[in-house]
Amino acid sequence: MAFLNGIMLTGAVAVAIPIIIHFLNKRKFNRVIWGAMRFLQISVQQNQRRMQIEDLLLLILRCVLCALLALALARPALRSASAAGWFGQSKVTAVLVLDNSYSMCQSDGVSSRFERAQLALVQAIDAMPAGSSAAVLLASDITKPVIPQPTYDLDLARKAIRSARLCDRGTNLYSAVADSLDLLRKSGGLRKEIFIATDGQASGFSQLDDVDRILDEAKADVRCHFLLCGQQETSNLSVSNISAGTDIPAVGQPHAFDVEITNWGTQEQDSIRVTLCNNNDPPSAEGIIDKIDPGQSKWITLSTKVRDEGYQTVTASLPPDHLPADDQRSVAFRGFKKVNVLLVDGEPGSEPRDSEVFYLRRALAPVRRAEAADYLVQCTRVVPGDLPGRALDGFQVMVLANVADLAAGELDAITTFVKSGGGLIIFPGGNTQPDYYNSHLLNQVGLLPAELGKAVGDEKDDKKFSRISSKFLQHPIASVWTDPAAGEIGAAHFFRRYLLKPIDKPGTPAIAAAGAASVVLRFDDEQPFMVERQFGQGRVVLFASSAGTRWNDLPDHPGLYVSLLYRTLGWLVLQRDRNLNISVGQRWIFHPEVSALNRTAIITQPRSAGEERDSCTVEMSSDNLPTVNYDNTDLGGPYTVEIPGQPVVKFACQPDKNESSLVDISPAQKEKLAQSATVVDWHPGIDLAATMSKERVGTELFMVLAVLLLMTALAETFLADWFSRPK
Description:
Layout: H1 2-24, H2 38-74, E1 77-78, H3 81-87, E2 92-99, H4 113-126, E3 133-139, E4 143-151, H5 154-162, H6 174-185, E5 191-198, H7 208-218, E6 222-228, E7 237-243, E8 254-263, E9 269-278, E10 283-292, E11 297-305, E12 310-317, E13 328-335, E14 339-345, H8 358-364, E15 377-382, E16 397-401, H9 408-419, E17 423-427, H10 434-444, E18 450-457, E19 496-502, H11 509-514, E20 518-522, E21 528-535, E22 538-543, H12 558-576, E23 581-583, E24 588-590, E25 600-604, E26 613-617, E27 619-620, E28 626-630, E29 637-642, E30 649-654, H13 667-673, E31 678-681, H14 688-695, E32 699-700, H15 702-723
Parallel strand pairs: 2-3, 2-5, 5-6, 6-31, 14-15, 14-16, 16-17, 17-22, 23-30
Antiparallel strand pairs: 1-32, 3-4, 7-8, 8-11, 9-10, 9-12, 12-13, 18-19, 20-21, 21-22, 24-28, 25-26, 25-29, 27-28, 29-30
């Protein structure tokens, strides 16, 4: 409005310009007596009145010309219905918003909600007056512009809508409404409109109050139309979760996958068949869930053999229904032929049994010597002095058992090993120097998840001991002991231990970069027994007591000891690949081998033809690691990544399970929304043009003013030429 006022003020000033020029051109004459002038006096008196009239007429035309120019630039409009009848309906500047979240793929057996929404927006374009313009946006939980600025080529807008594709994102229409309003604020025109074609799912209006507020603030200039294209559905089963567990997937061995099935419908579902398939192969396992009540979920565990080494996917599936996007869900993992563990023995001893890692080696590889070479876990024992110069790339996990301290080169090598994805387990003992660990491993590089306090207890007094508490079993490593069949977590006795202080404050920059620590298990006095946290791409686990029997009798309870070690080992190995499973829309980050630097990664998306591939370059990250950053993850399911000279990598994107909900926007919510927008329950037979024409009751006067401006300019030019001719 301030801009229009400025134009009108400028026009008012411009009208004065011809008048000023007119008066400036009036010359002042000095009277000179010349006898011959008396013969001209009669002629001048006869023509003087005619010349004054001509000059006044030209002055009026020039003033009108300036006024019309100012009015035309101000683009005045008449909003009455009678004006629309005389001058025609006002053209529209519109933003067309198409909901492409995965709930839109729901079908009634004939057409999907998405197809109906496309028809609704094409119909909205057909209902626009000639000369209108439109932008096209896709809306899910984010807004993606297809035609970012209004175009007068409405055929292009129709084509963009018809060729749009569904994604597997969730829905939140607030960002689409806000982005549409921002776009229209920067656009001209009398009539500004937003058309949002959606299925009316309640989750899409989770910010209904905010949507209503911003539309109400803008309704004087912008009119929003919600075209609800959904049809009520009462039945839907979904694969709402799938997990690969915490066990290491060993090649040639069965591996268990936990699958969650949710009944989103209003009726009980029974005899539900769930299948598993490796990669894209036929189903390799199946199970039946007897029944699931409405709004409830049930888990089923299915096992399938890990066929190959390396990256792969498993997909859980249900029989198809009217919402196909949630009938299957995939999880990516890595199969292992061998897991290599480096045991750094800080107390070798004179006899094998005196070694600090004696029990560790047997717990991690509990087989006969002849079978050890073929066993999943391969242990390599070294002493601290053997670390310098040793290549650590071939190991997945390193264990520091009662190691006193580390040389500078050893600490750097271990830090790089963990940062690039390796797992580190630390068992303290009598040789451990807490001051060194706290100053170097904690404050200097940020490796430790907890500060080592003082050692308490007496390893020689077996009458005083601590136990592991069964009250704190929330961590994935510890959760198995919530089942009594897994054994008693408090069976072992701990005679001497360190007091651990988990890191919960930033401290040094190195500590802040590593993040917060998690307590895995606690003693019965609630002091931490195990603490872990992420460091770079790897993780570190710190125990409060020794790995052997010097400070505790944990190895004397093989069921507990072996289970604890294997769950810890599996956690570290699988967490290295935690980025293989991400949410739809999340950036996928992967660190290949150094040899892949500057090579091109080719990514194949789910449900895509072979030629539809994306590519990105392997670049060095700020942590000096070769990195693949991939953002186009709008589809759920397995992705395949090929890098020349590297093993094929697979990862999986998992949609938001709440998008499977069948709950639509309520009548009360519709009524609230209708106060600031038009809400239309759209169906193919509706006459959208008639609905829109009732609201478009005004017209712009720009063309009328432009024609008058041109006619005035021509008249002024002609008369100026005519009046200047000799008479």
